[in-house]
Amino acid sequence: MGLGRASAMIAAGTLASRLTGLLRTVVLVIAINSVGRAPDAFAVANALPNSIYQVISAGVLTGVIVPQVVRAATQKDSGHAFLAKLLTLGALIMGSVTVVATLCAPLLIDLYSNFDSPQQHALAIQFAYWCIPQLFFYGMFALLGEILNARKMFAPYAWAPIINNFVSIAGFVVFIVLFGQNRNTIEGWDSSMVLVLAGTATLGVIAQTVVLTLFWRRAGIPLRLDFRWRGMGLGHMGKLATWTLLTTLIGQAVGIVQSLTITTASGEHASTAASQYAWLVYMLPYSMIILAIGTPYFTRISEHSAAERHSELRADVGQSIRVLGLFTVIAAAAVIAAAVPASRVFSNTPEDASAMAPVLIAYLVSLVPMGVLFVIQRTFYAYGDARTPFIFTIVQGSLVLVLTLVVAASVPAEHLAAAVALAQSLSGIVQTVIATILLRRKIGPLGLGATWWALCRFVLMAIPAGLAGWGVFLASGGADGWMLQGMIWGALGSALIGATSVLVYIGLLAVFRAPELTVAIDTVRRRRG
Predict the structure, then answer these.
(1) 195 shares its domain with 217
(2) Using the 8-state DSSP alphabet, how is residue 348 labeled?
(3) How many contiguous H segments (helices) and E segments (strands) does the chain have?
(4) Engineered SS bond to 265: which of 134, 202, 269, 510, CB 3.0-4.6 Å?
(5) Dihedral, 19, 31, 332, 360 alpha carbons, nearest 10
(6) Is 243 found in the same domain as 210?
(7) Same domain for 275 and 143?
(8) Which residue, 194, 212, 232, sits at the end of a domain?
């Protein structure tokens, strides 16, 4: 499968997944709101399995498993024996970790929250007991999906989360029917309400994992257990996994400090739930662009590394950054322009939307650098180097930690969430610069001069495009206009602002004859032909 077709398939699945995910979140906001003690208690508990899932997905799986699966595919049995051993080992580890984490639910809530209300703390623990079992199914979903990606079967992993969203939507609707809307206070919550809300979230994760297992059979990959792990290269993978685990654990440690800081604002101000919803909006362009386009590139970069085709690898690094930059630059500008109406989609009042919008903008500052980091970091992984990413992640984590502590000591509660998000974005930019310098030292000149110049051109085009979108928001009445009168109006306003920004951006690229636009148009024409 070519890169264009693979990227399109992932993008289509990701778009459907993210849109249904946004709908899922809207229904959840209707049920419990985005600002308040109950939504923050649920947000902290439901984030626990997600946090560990990020360790697995971004750390061990991406950094270790994908390159190993690519190499194993060259074996006589196409790597089936290796995959059976890997699947068995992964299931055993994830099952054990999940059991321990569930038993430690109260300790984990203590670790990740700083609630000043004992009732809110107790409610979060109840949620955690039902949410933490998601961890096993998140882990297995990530393991199965990354293996399929490594074998160039990108569609199942991209499309399966839709099942999760549909199950969750149905469950949250049941919650609304049974218990009403806007249950954002901690008064009146009982075990049946906790079961329906948190149990629904867990059932959705189970459903998407079950669906993904069906594709293994269709792909001709035996789904069996094999405990004979000797000879599968655990020693080598263990060394790589040590560095990737340390890398991601640093991120988790920083995340704990961030969570402790943000939860102090819970109640009347934007806190954990609002931050998570802002991150969800941020992840829409990240997933649609960076993951959809970057994932096939990572597989090909791994192949170039395995075959020692270094010049082709360098060319793909530059090309992937330029392609990602073409889209991420305008995505950041458009969403920043639409930050307030976009936040209204996930808020029950205009005031809550105005409180959430700065958090979203602060995250978007790092969207373009994160696209560059995605490529650079995975190039290290393709070369079997997990130690260097650990080094530049230490720098990033340390900087986030210092800035977060400064924020906690100096920023008022109403601005805490936005300040913590900005600290993370600025640290990510520094991390990207260091990672690029270290990659150049490892594999020699990257030839990225033209790439950096292309990114600068994109930014220059995106600034007036974003201002045009912001002008549409002001023309609609701004904070008092129709775009903030409801969730649907917020969605329509965001779409109008985004469309305006994109059209202006494309027009400017055409006026100044940007070569990247010509390449993109030619690619679309060839695909249509």
Answers:
(1) yes
(2) S
(3) 22, 0
(4) 269
(5) -160
(6) no
(7) no
(8) 232
The pLDDT of residue 527 is: 44
Same domain, 188 and 253: no
> Are residues 104 and 169 both part of a single domain?
yes
Give 64's DSSP letter. Answer: I
HSE-CB for 358 with a 13 A CA cutoff: 16
The encoded tokens of residue 425 equal 């974005």
d(Cα 308, Cα 383) in Å, to the nearest integer? Answer: 9
What is the Cα–Cα distance from 186 to 173, expressed in whole angstroms? 20
Q: What does the H/E/C string look like for 7-55? A: HHHHHHHHHHHHHHHHHHHHHHHHHHCCCCHHHHHHHHHHHHHHHHHHH
Picking from 188, 210, 232, the residue at the C-terminal end of a domain is 232
Q: State percent of the chain over pLDDT 90.
A: 42
Q: Do residues 490 and 464 share a domain?
A: yes
Predicted local distance difference test score (pLDDT) of residue 45:
95
Structure tokens at 430: 């520094």
Distances in Å between the Cα of 82 and the Cα atoms of 72, 86, 415 are: 7, 6, 50
pLDDT at 363: 96
Provide the domain count of the chain: 2
Residue 529: other Cβ atoms inside 10 A: 5
Instruction: Return d(Cα 292, Cα 7) in angstroms, integer.
Output: 5
DSSP string over 79-142:
THHHHHHHHHHHHHHHHHHHHHHHHTHHHHHHHH---S-HHHHHHHHHHHHHHTTHHHHHHHHH
Q: Which residue, among 282, 285, 378, has the nearest Cα to 11 in the 3D structure?
A: 285
Task: Pick the closest to residue 334 from 483, 490, 503 (CA basis).
Answer: 503
* Residues 200 and 284 grouped into a single domain: no
Which band of pLDDT confidence, cut at 50, 70 and 90, is reported for residue 16?
Answer: confident
Our CA angle for 524, 527, 529, nearest 5°, is 110
In sequence order, the 6+-apart residues with CB closer than 8 A to the CB of 230 are: none
Provide the domain limits for residue 147: 1-232
Amino acid at 226: D
Question: Which whole number is the average pLDDT over 336-359?
Answer: 92
Those residues whose C-beta lies under 8 Å from the C-beta of residue 150, and which sit 6 or more positions away, are 65, 66, 69, 70, 73, 299, 302
pTM of the model: 0.77
Report the alpha-carbon distance of residue 10 to residue 467 in Å, rounded: 30
| Residue-level pLDDT at 76 | 61
Task: Give the total residue count for the chain.
Answer: 529
Q: Which residues, including other chains, have CB under 8 Å from residue 279's CB and lie 6 or more apart?
A: 363
Report the pLDDT value the prediction gives residue 139, as an integer from 0 to 100: 83
**pLDDT tens digit sequence for 421-471:** 999 999 999 999 999 999 888 887 777 888 888 899 999 999 999 999 999
- CA-based R_g, the chain, Å: 23
Q: Which two tokens stand for residue 316?
A: 């793909």
Give the tokens for residue 415. Answer: 């601005």
